[in-house]
Amino acid sequence: MALKNDGMQMPDDETTQKKSAVNHDLHDALERTMDAKHLVKRYMLYTGGAGLIPIPFVDVASVGALQLKMIKELSELYKVPFKENIVRGSISILAGGLAAVSLVKSTGGLLKSVPLVGSVLGGASLGIYSSASTYAIGRVFIEHFESGGTFLTFNAEKYRKLYKEHFYSAKERDTKHATA
Q1: Percentage of the chain exceeding pLDDT 90
Q2: CA–CA separation, 32 vs 103, rounded Å?
Q3: What is the pTM of this model?
Q4: Measured distance CA(60)–CA(72) in Å, rounded
Q5: Which residue from 53, 167, 177 is spatially nearest to 109, judged by alpha carbons?
Q6: Of 131, 123, 140, 125, which Cα lies nearest the Cα of 44?
């Protein structure tokens, strides 16, 4: 630090450059986090719409493909090399049990087999569950990448509780919006 004529300390160029670099890095990190959250919201809409597909199993396959694409885009945003085979397994472990139980409870898949009305009711139900699951998966991977994690260090069992919290909060929010 240099002294001004009045005896006050002035930061030198090196200190100013370090502060500027820290502020720039912080700004980049905040912008990346905002971009990641917007990406997840966009895919929530896509998977919610895919849940409305009136053909059983095609809807679920579409949701899975969209979730995989979302994670790939998140990995690109965080500059983490994408590993599709690891991601598929991680999604299954992370969401598998909860999604299956939720799907049975919602009976969305079964309702779609009822002509006319079943497609609408089953699609709406599956759309809400798909959207909530996508939100939860996206938020888990954002947190993992934000902490410096990669696909090789991802431990799905460790993140199951966080997944469930995000899933149920999103499902509750989506259900309120659907009935409003």
Answers
A1: 39
A2: 33
A3: 0.73
A4: 19
A5: 53
A6: 131
